[in-house]
Automatic annotation (TrEMBL):
Species of the source: Citricoccus muralis
PANTHER family in UniProt: LMBE FAMILY PROTEIN, N-ACETYLGLUCOSAMINYL-PHOSPHATIDYLINOSITOL DE-N-ACETYLASE-RELATED
Keywords: Zinc
A Pfam family recorded for this sequence: PIG-L
Biological classification of the source: Bacteria, Bacillati, Actinomycetota, Actinomycetes, Micrococcales
Protein name (Swiss-Prot/TrEMBL): PIG-L family deacetylase
Length: 282
């Protein structure tokens, strides 16, 4: 897998050694490069990002600080949520209204990080499956938005913290990965989409959140936007029986990626779907 070369660290401005060409397994990387959101935009040439998750609040837990940095850098970020999140929450009296509550919470959370468009699908919370129905809707939106980068949950289970690997998260990540290649770039996949004017295109980047630590190959320095992530998470009030503990946990997790230097980070698995040397099927 190829990832950007000659990336500099915000603290020292020194070049981080990276593979110069060809595809490499993440295990070959001795340390993940650190990029500011502005560097991420520059290195990946980002104008539009589509962020897809299974539930309201998934994107805010996994990537809100990075996404806030991207919107501040002028990137158009679109959110898509596969379910209404109706299986979440803790109040038994809110069962009938939980989906509408959580959708409004997600809209407000998105606003905190500069995202104005939030698309909600209507798949069953707790039963997201990798089906052609799910993939078709993802491909439809990808072809409409035509992003340079799609961000979603990692399809690999993280055994160190199983809560990150909710089955809906894994299914969402797998469905997005399958949509990213080959469906979104194959004009004969879901031909009704092309007939409706949604033409196939080649996605350049896929960025995965919440996966095993061994898969992380890039860290985004989010020191300047960490508090916006907290503000976004605060909007999901129905999901936090102990908001203070939630905030403490999230800040500690971000701080752990920059131990002892006062900075915050979010880690991802960055995949180059279509590189300069990519040919069909390889």
């Amino acid at each position: 897998m190829r990832i950007p070369v000659n990336i500099t660290t915000p603290a020292t401005d020194a070049a981080v050694p990276m593979p110069s060409s060809g595809r490499h397994d993440v295990e070959q990387l001795t340390s993940a490069p650190i990029l500011t959101p502005v560097q991420l935009v520059s290195e990946l040439k980002l104008k539009t990002v589509l962020a897809i998750a299974a539930h309201p609040d998934d994107l805010d837990f996994g990537a809100a600080a990075t996404l806030a940095g991207l919107t501040s850098a002028g990137v158009n970020v679109v959110y898509a949520v596969l379910t209404g999140g109706d299986a979440g929450g803790f109040d038994p009296t809110q069962r009938e209204s939980m989906a509408s509550i959580r959708q409004e919470e997600q809209r407000q959370a998105a606003h905190q990080v500069g995202v104005e468009r939030v698309e909600f699908f209507d798949f069953k919370d707790g039963d997201v499956q990798v089906t052609h129905e799910v993939m078709r809707e993802i491909v439809r939106l990808m072809r409409e938005v035509r992003p340079e980068l799609v961000l979603t949950s990692h399809p690999e289970r993280d055994w160190s913290r199983l809560q990150r690997s909710h089955p809906d998260h894994l299914a969402c990540g797998e469905a997005v990965a399958r949509a990213s290649y080959p469906a979104v770039e194959n004009p004969f996949a879901y031909p009704e989409l092309a007939e409706a004017g949604l033409e196939a295109f080649k996605l350049r980047w896929l960025m995965l959140m919440g996966g095993p630590a061994s898969r992380s190959n890039v860290t985004v320095d989010v020191t300047g936007t960490a508090q916006r992530k907290i503000s976004a998470l605060n909007e999901h009030a129905s999901q936090h029986p102990d908001p203070t503990a939630m905030r403490r946990f999230v800040l500690k997790a971000m701080e752990a990626l920059h131990p002892d230097d006062g900075r915050f980070g979010e880690a991802f698995h960055l995949v180059e779907v279509n590189a300069a040397d990519t040919i069909s099927g390889f």
